[in-house]
Write a structure and sequence with these properties.
With about 140 residues, the chain is mostly helical. It has one domain. Helices cover about 80% and strands about 0% of the residues. The chain contains four helices and no strands. It is elongated.
């Protein structure tokens, strides 16, 4: 029985999406850590109910979602926007699961994790489109 070997582009596609995920996580958690260290945010493990602080967290996460989509698109072997959209779908699923947990634990206002879930796909898509437009302009 012959085994099929996946084309090299499949592995590159997976790595492109994983790189986008890593970029979003590292940037988000790194910024969170800095804001905790400078005591802008309450200590880790304590709920954050202040709407202004949640809006701050959402604002940089929106930007990082676009950056992650851009990275996934830039590393994609082909169809850059498709890779960014796949990243966005994964981000939506992870954020939706996180939203369910955060709302159940009353870790802060419900709008924040819902906004993260709802914005995951559009932000990643935008990053992919920005990359495609930049690459097309060359």
């Amino acid at each position: 029985m012959a085994t099929q070997i996946a084309p090299p582009s499949v592995g590159r596609s997976i790595l492109a999406v994983l790189a986008g995920i890593v970029v979003v996580f590292v940037l988000s958690l790194g910024t969170d850590q800095l804001l905790h260290m400078f005591q802008v945010y309450p200590p880790w493990g304590e709920p954050m109910h202040d709407p202004g602080l949640n809006a701050l967290a959402l604002s940089y996460r929106l930007v990082y979602g676009v950056v992650g989509g851009y990275v996934a698109a830039a590393l994609a072997p082909r169809n850059p926007v498709r890779h960014a959209v796949i990243l966005g779908v994964i981000g939506f699923v992870l954020s939706a699961v996180g939203a369910i947990g955060a709302i159940a634990m009353k870790a802060g206002p419900a709008w924040y994790p819902i906004a993260l879930a709802v914005s995951a796909l559009p932000c990643s898509w935008l990053g992919g489109v920005l990359y495609r437009n930049k690459a097309g302009a060359r």
